[in-house]
Amino acid sequence: MLNFFIQEGAEVAQDLEPVVEAQEKTLSIMDLLMTGGIAGQIIIAVLFVLLFVAVYIYFERLFAIKAANKMDGNFMNQIRDHVAKGNIQAAKVLCAQNNTPVSHLTEKGISRIGSPLEDINTAIENAGRLEVYKLEKNVSVLATIAGAAPMIGFLGTVIGMVLAFHTLATSSGQAEMGTLAEGIYTAMTTTVAGLIVGIIAYMGYNHLVVRTDKVVHQMEATAVDFLDMLNEPA
Asked: Which keywords does this chain's UniProt record carry (predicted)?
């Protein structure tokens, strides 16, 4: 009988014990960024700077290319009329009012009217190279960031892995797997950050290249149209 009461009391005590539920450990991005050690935090900071530079260059160049692509559809017709009437000054004023790469090329060609066509063509080509250089200003930096950011992120991961295995080696193999795994996935965050920055910079670079090519093609078409105009019989 005594054993019966003891067993009953034990079962009741067991039922009264609080149920401890397994708490799932949440993964906070801020925790990952702040617990990556000094080396990891420095690399993350560098990647943030590269991201800011890439975004700034992208939008600055995008607005500049959009402004360069704006041109009156009747621009060349007006230039043709002024040149046909011999009103060269009015044609130059019209080019200055537009302030686009196309108008700059046209103004350069107008200023050379009277010279041989070969000289006019050379002057337009030189002006075109200058305008393309202005359009592509700092765009190569995006390409550099697109290639460098993933490598910088991978460098942070390698440093984190070296430190994690160093901890394992100095503890004679007695390091807790949880602590070791935490150090490893924290180190991997630099690679993730580097890939994100690299992808953003790469997409921005390609988009700007496409938009710049459209302006360059428009400049080439205008130069050919202008030279054809000069070749027309009087």
From this structure: Cell membrane, Membrane, Protein transport, Transmembrane, Transmembrane helix, Transport
